[in-house]
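Give me structure tokens for this 291-residue protein.
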Amino acid sequence: MIADLIRMRDDLRVVEPARDIDIELRLLTGRRAEIVADQTRRAQRLRDLLVSIFPGLERVVDVTTKTGLHLLTRYVTPAQIRRAGRARLLAWLRRAGHVKNATLTALAGAAVAAARAQAIAVPGEQVAAELIRGLAAEALAGRQQLQAIDARIEEALARHPDAALIRSLPGMGAILTAEYLAVTGGIGRFPDGNKLAAAAGLAPALRQSGKVRYLERGTGGDRALKRVFYQSAFIAAGCDPASKAYYARKRSEGKTHHQAVLALARRRVNVLHAMLRNRTPYQPGHTTAAA
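Here you go.
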């Protein structure tokens, strides 16, 4: 019965196998998301451990930067930093490479000042310091993995036929473009912008009960695709004049920040679909794109 029903219907699209380049992007972006999640977890754990033994250092060291992590791979406790002194800290920090000397000097001075302000050693300090050094080394390795993954994504995008068009839209950088292509594979599955918006959960959903019919904000759709459009709209609202004007207009109509960004994201879905359908890069002066 199912086969016979499918045979008689003419509104079903043909399911085509994914292209190798789209599968490659899907795997790379998935791995990148895992690394980012691990880095976030490590950064939070580093902050917790630092607060427990050396809160002064936690206030002056940014555990998301290469310089801060490089410092923590060797110098963690107040006693270690006091013994090393400012000169040795600077020499160690310079091994991180490609960092302004003023930044290194400020960090070394702040670390030494924090060490002098804490004269006590808390219980479990040595074990915590050992864990911090290990986590910092793992975080540095994670940064290298991210750089390698990003380079492979850039290389894959250079081979994708749609990547250059998508990246011409303000706010769609390399990572968001790769994530979009990883989910959709292009626009072949979506005959118009409304279908693409519905897939992203940005189109209003029709609710009806008896004679009552009304539209409400969509709550379904692919969350990863919705995040791509929302994040790119958020970025474009701050750098693209047309997007900035549309966002300001929505705010003047009484929309909240979140609602205005969602409205902009919905409008940009149609723009992106038209760009890919017509094989035309983004044109800032075009009325459809700037509306």
